[in-house]
């Protein structure tokens, strides 16, 4: 086992993945930690033993993929980003700002620094299967002691090789199938890539020539040095480029101890990607369940607008249509509205949305879809305002923002009730009230079979939901057919003979946020949001 211990000395982290990110990067990406080790190696003499140790670290593999570490990291509270006007390098000529203490002029450029306060200032990165030799372990230990920062220069750290007795159970583990976030890693070739961008040999050569020009008394040597500076560097310092690691790995929370006792499920994966909605602009303080259609439609459009560089198969899963524009017959991306329901004080307002993906989706396709999901940072909903989209990564998020609340994973539940109404596949033809309800119940049972679930023992058709805070069916806008005619919908209660796992999403609107059911069993019963 190999464990890197990291302590953030100031109690905060200052780092961000992209220049325009408004939130600090947390937990720290393994790739960023590797770059900090490489920077310490470059700036302290580039010891060959250190290079050998870094090459060994980047070569770690598992199942043909880079061996990403498990991570122990506490929660973090994001600070508000404030724009500062920072002086840049001195330059001659007029400027907007004149320093009173010196006859120099400087312009000030706007800069912002994303930071987050940490609940605990310790982080551990764990490679449980790594077996370094004694020489490599000692070299990594001495190299990690040279690391002074990870991220921005104000993000000061202490780093060391930790023992097994120092760490607790990881709270982030590599898992592409259940990935909630994506963190950059360092595959083979990363060190060579960083060496090219650091351009160390050129820097050394340039420094040697400058020393000759400025310090050596021999006129001929100075002339030759000036000539080489002009020929090799055009009298400019060699460039150093900012690295950008492109290989990432999906991370999820560890599975619970009873995860192997999984009940039967549907064609959609129970591992929902939970996202929360936060108001940015507009007069609406919150969204309610009746807005689900608008939110889901705009969200899908945003995903597609950020997927032009993805494969055709991924775009089909995102859009729900094949290359000819026809509806897909197979399962594709569906939206699960996460609302404040099931409590005495529940009002049904929308907290966020869960993204359900097909259970048979390949690892590569899921990875691409998660890239598109991560690119959508806000939704513009017209009169409903502008809402930012943020992943739910807290250790203990609110109950209604937990995936298991909507899927009852992994033990399952026997009784389910709708939170958004089930849209009819066809118009019922029965005239009598009892016959009408029986026909609708049979239609709902067929919907269960269509998504791979067993046929329920009983279906109770009702105009209201069994969950507190859910509006009646009549309060939801009707879906329209292609000819413009409305489709009927209803709430329902489903009873199964055996526990099943969700997501249970039924009816013609199941990929648009309608027909979403939530478990009613005591184990997964309603509680505060």
Overview of the structural elements:
Helices cover 25% and strands 23% of the residues. By secondary structure, it is of the alpha+beta class. The strands form eight sheets. Strands 17, 18, 19, 20, 21 and 22 form a six-stranded antiparallel β-sheet that branches. Strands 23, 24, 25, 26 and 27 form a five-stranded antiparallel β-sheet that branches. Helix 2 packs across helix 3 and helix 8 packs across helix 9. The longest helix has 18 residues. 36% of the residues are buried. The C terminus is likely disordered.
Write the layout of secondary structure elements.
Layout: E1 2-8, E2 12-14, H1 30-43, H2 48-58, E3 61-62, E4 65-66, E5 70-73, E6 76-78, E7 83-87, E8 97-98, E9 105-106, E10 108-112, E11 115-118, E12 122-127, H3 134-144, E13 157-161, E14 173-174, E15 181-184, H4 190-198, H5 200-215, H6 219-233, E16 248-252, E17 273-281, E18 287-288, H7 292-305, H8 312-319, E19 334-339, E20 349-356, H9 363-375, E21 378-380, E22 386-391, H10 403-407, E23 413-418, E24 422-423, H11 433-450, E25 458-462, E26 489-500, E27 517-519
Antiparallel strand pairs: 1-12, 1-13, 2-11, 3-4, 5-12, 6-11, 7-10, 8-9, 14-16, 15-16, 17-20, 17-22, 18-20, 19-20, 21-22, 23-26, 23-27, 24-26, 25-26
């Amino acid at each position: 086992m190999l464990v890197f211990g990291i302590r953030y000395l100031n109690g905060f982290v200052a780092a961000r993945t992209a220049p325009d990110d408004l939130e600090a990067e947390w937990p720290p990406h393994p790739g960023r930690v590797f770059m900090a080790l490489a920077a310490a190696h470059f700036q302290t003499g580039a010891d060959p033993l250190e290079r050998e140790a870094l090459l060994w670290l980047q070569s770690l593999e598992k199942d043909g993929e880079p061996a990403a570490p498990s991570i122990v990291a506490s929660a973090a509270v994001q600070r508000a980003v404030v724009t500062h006007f920072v002086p840049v390098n001195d330059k001659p000529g007029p400027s907007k700002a004149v320093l009173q203490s010196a006859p120099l002029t400087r312009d000030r450029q706007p800069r912002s620094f994303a930071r987050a306060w940490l609940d605990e200032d310790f982080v551990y990165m764990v490679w449980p299967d790594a077996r370094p030799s004694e020489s490599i372990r000692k070299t990594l230990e001495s190299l990690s002691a040279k690391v002074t920062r990870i991220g921005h220069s104000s993000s000061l750290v202490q780093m060391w090789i930790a023992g097994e007795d120092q760490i607790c159970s990881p709270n982030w583990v590599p898992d592409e199938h259940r990935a909630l976030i994506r963190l950059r890693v360092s595959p083979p070739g990363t060190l060579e890539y960083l060496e090219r961008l650091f351009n160390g040999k050129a820097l050394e050569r340039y420094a040697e020539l400058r020393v000759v020009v400025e310090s050596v008394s021999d006129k001929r040597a100075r002339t030759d040095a000036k000539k080489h500076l002009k020929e090799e560097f055009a009298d400019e310092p060699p460039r150093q480029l900012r690295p950008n690691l492109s290989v990432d790995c999906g991370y999820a929370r560890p599975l619970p101890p009873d995860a192997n006792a999984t009940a039967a499920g549907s064609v959609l994966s129970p591992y929902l990607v939970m996202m929360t909605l936060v108001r940015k602009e507009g007069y609406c303080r919150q969204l309610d369940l009746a807005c689900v259609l608008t939110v889901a439609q705009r969200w899908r459009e945003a995903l597609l607008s950020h997927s032009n560089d993805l494969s055709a198969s991924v775009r089909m899963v995102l859009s729900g249509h094949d290359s000819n524009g026809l509806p897909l017959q197979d399962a594709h991306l569906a939206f699960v509205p996460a609302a404040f329901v099931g409590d005495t004080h529940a009002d049904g307002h929308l907290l966020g949305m869960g993204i359900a993906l097909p259970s048979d989706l390949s690892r590569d396709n899921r990875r691409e879809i998660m890239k598109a999901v991560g690119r959508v940072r806000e939704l513009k909903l017209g009169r409903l305002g502008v809402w930012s989209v943020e992943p739910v990564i807290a250790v203990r998020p609110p109950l209604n923002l937990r995936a298991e609340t909507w899927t009852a994973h992994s033990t399952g539940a026997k009784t389910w009730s709708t939170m958004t109404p089930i849209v009819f596949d066809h118009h019922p033809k029965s005239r009598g009230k009892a016959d009408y309800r029986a026909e609708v119940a049979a239609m709902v049972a067929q919907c269960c079979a269509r998504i791979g679930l067993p046929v329920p023992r009983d279906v109770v058709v009702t105009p209201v939901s069994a969950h507190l805070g859910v509006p009646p069916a009549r309060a939801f806008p009707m879906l329209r057919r292609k000819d413009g005619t409305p489709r009927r919908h209803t709430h329902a209660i489903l009873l199964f003979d055996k526990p099943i796992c969700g997501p249970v999403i039924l009816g013609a609107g199941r990929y648009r946020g309608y027909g979403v059911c939530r478990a009613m069993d005591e184990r997964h019963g309603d509680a505060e949001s």
